[in-house]
Sequence to fold (538 residues):
Amino acid sequence: MLEVKNLVVNYGAISALHGISLQVEQGDIVTLIGGNGAGKTTTLRAISGLLKPKSGEVIYHGQNITRLPAHKIVAAGLSHVPEGRMVFANLTVLENLKMGAYLQKDKAVVANEMDYVFSIFPRLKEREKQISGTLSGGEQQMLAIGRALMGKPKFLMLDEPSLGIAPLLVKTIFEKIGEINRERGITILLVEQNANLALEISRYGYVLETGKIILQDDSTALRQNPKVKSAYLGG
Amino acid sequence: MELFFQQLINGLALGAIYALIALGYTMVYGVLRFINFAHSDVLMLGAFAAYFLAPGIAKVLPPHSFASALLITILAAAICAIIGILIERLAYRPLRNRPKLTVLITAIGVSLFIEFTCQHKAVFRSETRRFPELLPINDYHFGGLVVNSNDIVVLVTTIILLAAMWFIVQHTKTGTAMRAVAFNMQAASLMGIDVNRIVSFTFGLGSALAAIAGILYAMKAPGIDPLMGIQPGLRAFIAAVLGGIGNLPGAALGGIVLGVVETFAGGIPGLSNYRDGIAFAMLIGILIFRPAGLLGKATVEKV
Ligand SMILES: Nc1ncnc2c1ncn2[C@@H]1O[C@H](COP(=O)(O)OP(=O)(O)O)[C@@H](O)[C@H]1O
Ligand SMILES: [Mg+2]
Fold:
């Protein structure tokens, strides 16, 4: 469904990704783990069109989307929940969700998606009139995910959904990610520093280190891998 | 007491015009974080567009009629909307990711370019022209109070436009997208919002308001010339900062406050020459005691 080939991304003179390749099959949950500064965020931003790669290709459903602007990539069904959530803090919860459905012209479809988002995150329903900047970190993460779902994506990329969130909420959010994948058939590419959680929920994983993929395997195998164990799973 | 109300009405009418202009400054600032100095020249172009349209429209609609004034204003607003969109497209968009100072200097350049081009003898020339009477001018007497019909037109037009703006920005999808883009352009593009289209819309809307403000200003002024935008443009810029730059109700409030204060100050013997000084003194005072402006929120640095 998604194929990244030899992606190279530079920030000025600094090279952040030195040619990474990965694949995500339809219906899968694939994770990309790696330490701070490994290039995980850069990878997602290059896929979603927020960054222009120096070379390499991103193929989505057979279509080369490498040079498309971000808003056209969304239109193709690929949604990105960015690092740090980036909810529109000046807008209400409801307005944020409506922006997620910006490209959807059919009001009935929008209402339907809204019901679904509220069913998985009832907390958002309780706070629909609230200005989003006043939500807790966990609630903002729910909003960011809900907002992405409003666009009815076929492919969802999540950048560290566990970052800066209370452990109890992290658990809920990861359960919901699994649910979204199973119930909606949405393919997921999950970026995490929390390798434990990510390898538990995913089927396949890639390990990124300083801009290179150093390992890739089934998630169950990666969890047993001594290198992964010592570097990412705390021994 | 009568003098007080007289001055109040004059001040409100002047302030209403500042408010309309200030909205354009503040909207562009909200979305792109720079001051579009060419905005005051778009105002002037609006007045000139009406000046040149009036004789033509007079052939299809009776002059001084409401319908002809409305048509002239709408056409001038549309022309200026296109000019505003072109200015952004040609001058500012190529510099979108450059330091804001670069864009700011470019904006000053665009402003000077328009002013000097328009003063050229092949364009509008530098002389002052008499602005046509778009509507019949009457004085209405209420007791000792004299209200000029132009002031009523200015106030009613402004109220309608402010309400329309509020509706667009708060209650339409495009308006919500404007606020989303203003908060975080990249996040907005991840929603499928074409940021460039929203920026164009913002410039178009702001420029249309400037054109209408220019026409209203010209109706009250002795005449129009290529530099006529500088004075009201500067005041409106101060008004936008006064109200809290980036904040729409703030711009409207700032404009009205500035217009009223300026008018009252102008009515006090000895002070009338210090109108600009008073406007700047207010600006400095606000910047010291409420740096975010009257209605602005203390800015939280975006991470
Ligand atoms: N805007 C930027 N400008 C320059 N360097 C950057 C920028 N963003 C990230 N980097 C660098 O690129 C590398 C990868 O960063 P990032 O993709 O954010 O890593 P991760 O998400 O895995 O923590 C890091 O060395 C980081 O310092
Ligand atoms: Mg990151």
Summary: Chain B has one domain: 19-239. The pocket of magnesium ion (ligand 2) is lined by residues A 40-41, 83, 160 (CB under 6 Å). The radius of gyration of chain B is 19 Å.
